[in-house]
Design brief:
By secondary structure, the protein is an all-beta fold. It has strands spanning 3-7, 10-12, 18-25, 34-39, 46-51, 57-59, 67-72, 77-82, 91-97, 101-102, 106-110.
Length: 112
């Protein structure tokens, strides 16, 4: 059974940084594409960033240059480094494995 557990969310001021982590278990982590989605109140869930098993990445236009996705296959963990955070980045962030399995989400709030 695949389990994804996110951590690292919280409250941060505009311009600040956070690093989200997602620890996976129950799968052959290294062969799957991993991704981060987010959902703000009243909005649809949207893809933030994804990383393939080979390390290729793609990002939503709104986060390019500010967010970085990475993975550590030895630790079965994917990360999302978020810099220069804006109030519009406020959302629940979800980790996904192969766009099939989902974590429970972690809240990120950007506010002064």
């Amino acid at each position: 059974q695949v389990q994804l557990v996110e951590s690292g969310g919280g409250l941060v001021q505009p311009g600040g940084s956070l690093r989200l982590s997602c620890a996976a278990s129950g799968s052959i982590f290294s062969i799957y594409t991993m991704g981060w989605y987010r959902q703000a109140p009243g909005k649809q869930r949207e893809l933030v960033a994804a990383i393939t098993s080979r390390g290729s990445t793609n990002y939503a236009d709104s986060v390019k240059g500010r967010f970085t996705i990475s993975r550590d296959n030895a630790k079965n963990t994917v990360y999302l480094q978020m810099n220069s955070l804006r109030p519009e980045d406020t959302a629940v962030y979800y980790c996904t494995e192969a766009f099939t399995y989902w974590g429970q989400g972690t809240q990120v709030t950007v506010s002064s």
